[in-house]
Write a structure and sequence with these properties.
Length: about 160
């Protein structure tokens, strides 16, 4: 049975969201990778991105196995390398898209979230948008500006116009 049009749209929207996240990552200058919000003892920009990947992988593992994964913490050790984080985020983004497509078809099951793949999907978008805001705040408070064409056309325009 072919997927429902709404399922196709939701998976495409997830891919767009992931593409926007990767665009932001690619736009961060080298000095911004370790930026922290003013007065924060939390995660720097690098660890914010690594956290997103860790959460994605953790949920996918849990949905597949029912077991909590044993993933390394992102706050320990030196900040991860940008190229490595980009590669893992691209991969986990595609893994989420594949899982969602199967969950919408009924061949994969979402655990928790009342077993509703749309609820899990919207949780992921909300969670990642929260951290994207933290990343932007960290950069802004550190005096690092993302180019306007990326901020407006890339981070917002891709949702609105689809370009």
């Amino acid at each position: 049975m072919p997927p429902a049009p709404i399922a196709v749209s939701l998976v495409a929207a997830w891919r767009r969201h992931n593409g926007i996240l990767l665009l932001l990552l690619d736009s961060i200058p080298s000095g911004g990778w370790t930026a922290l919000p003013t007065g924060s003892r939390g995660r720097d920009v690098a660890r914010q991105f690594a956290h997103l990947d860790r959460v994605r992988r953790g949920w996918l593992h849990f949905h597949h196995t029912g077991e909590r994964p044993s993933l390394p913490r992102v706050n320990a050790g030196p900040p991860p390398r940008k190229a490595s984080v980009r590669r893992t985020l691209a991969e986990s983004g595609e893994n989420v898209a594949a899982f969602l497509a199967e969950a919408f078809q009924g061949t994969e099951k979402v655990r928790m979230f009342q077993r509703d793949p749309v609820r899990w999907y919207t949780y992921l978008i909300s969670h990642e948008s929260h951290h994207r805001g933290q990343i932007m705040l960290s950069l802004k408070q550190s005096g690092i500006r993302i180019p306007e064409r990326v901020r407006l056309q890339g981070l917002w325009g891709r949702w609105i116009s689809g370009k």
